[in-house]
Design brief:
By secondary structure, the chain is an all-alpha fold. It has 16 helices and two strands. Helix content is about 75%, strand content about 0%. A two-stranded antiparallel sheet has the order 1-2. A hairpin with a 2-residue loop joins strand 1 and strand 2.
């Protein structure tokens, strides 16, 4: 599924899909079948699109951009597979996860395989800086996942910890994709940095929006039930805002609701009502929009034209999307 604002690179995103298949045919080994199944599940393809668009900001898109975009999507795919194992998730985008289809052991190995093949695909371009960018993103994503696990179930988690978490888990790879695209077309160091800052702030806004949708979104459009983070005792920005603004009696009531082994509909409804009373949704969206403004400021340091317009439209999508 291609986001409507990404029509500019739609044909090249199809080539990225073909490249993914080619890489798996060439190197997938015994895990080729499960890997192909995973990528047939679709997705927004936002991260490879950022690679392609960042290239086009500075000139003609080199052929190597397709391979780099495919590698970035493989890293993203690996992170989703590992997340599903860690979170014991059986459904993603309305479809069974690799963990549900093949079990934890195959899923973990498949995630490892995708990470290795992504790094090999980048290394084939024989530019150390590109490998460094991808490797740093993988390290940051892992650190973000570790921080999330350490904070899981902790209602006293600070907003600053949450922000560090999503910077690693989500924003790091978007930042890397934008840096890679700029590096491929010989952008200046200042332009590469501007692209990186655009991707970082876009990623922060994207994840905050995702966490808002997890509470107030439409389950039919999301392809999953709402409230999954709360059920897993992952306390995201809307919850943390409400909790930190609440007085002790309210906090005690919230902790009591959360002691239920499985949040019943009544308990979930009470928690959402409590967050509404504390204007959590509005506060979270306000912060997401601040990140969007920082992304716009970074984008203004890149050449004007149709590609920059597309990236500006993408920022509007991030804060207004429904899935």
């Amino acid at each position: 599924m291609v986001i409507s604002s990404l029509k500019l690179v739609e044909s090249d995103l199809l080539r990225v899909e073909e490249q993914l298949v080619t890489l798996l045919e060439k190197r997938g080994g015994v895990l080729k079948g499960p890997a192909e199944m995973m990528f047939r599940g679709g997705g927004k393809r936002l991260r490879p699109a950022l690679v392609l668009l960042s290239c086009r900001l500075f000139g003609p898109q080199p052929e190597s951009a397709i391979s780099i975009a495919a590698a970035v999507e493989m890293v993203h795919g690996a992170s989703l597979i590992h997340d599903d194992v860690i979170d014991d998730t059986d459904l993603r985008r309305g479809q069974p996860t690799m963990k549900a289809l093949s079990g934890n052991r195959i899923a973990v190995l498949l995630g490892d395989l995708l990470l290795c093949q992504a790094l090999l695909a980048v290394a084939e371009l024989d530019r150390v800086v590109l490998v460094q960018v991808v490797s740093q993103a993988v390290a940051d994503m892992t650190a973000g996942q570790i921080l999330e696990l350490r904070q899981q179930g902790n209602v006293e988690t600070q907003v600053a910890d949450y922000l560090r978490m999503i910077e690693g888990k989500t924003a790091a790879l978007m930042e890397a994709g934008c840096r890679l695209g700029a590096l491929l077309t010989g952008a200046t160091p200042a332009e590469v940095e501007a692209c990186g800052q655009f991707g970082l702030n876009l990623g922060m806004a994207f994840q905050i929006s995702d966490d808002v949708l997890d509470i107030w979104g439409d389950p039919d459009k999301l392809g999953k039930p709402t409230g999954s983070d709360l059920r897993e005792r992952k306390y995201t920005l809307p919850f943390l805002y409400a909790y930190q603004q609440s007085l002790k009696p309210q906090r005690n009531l919230v902790r009591q609701l959360l002691t239920q082994e499985s949040l019943e509909p009544g308990a979930m409804q009470a928690l959402v009502q409590w967050m509404d009373q504390n204007h959590s949704r509005e506060h979270a969206i306000e912060l997401a929009e601040k990140y969007v403004q920082q992304a716009r400021a970074a984008l203004r340091q890149t050449p004007d034209g149709p590609t920059r317009t597309t990236l500006e439209e993408l920022l509007d999508y991030v804060v207004n999307r429904e899935h």
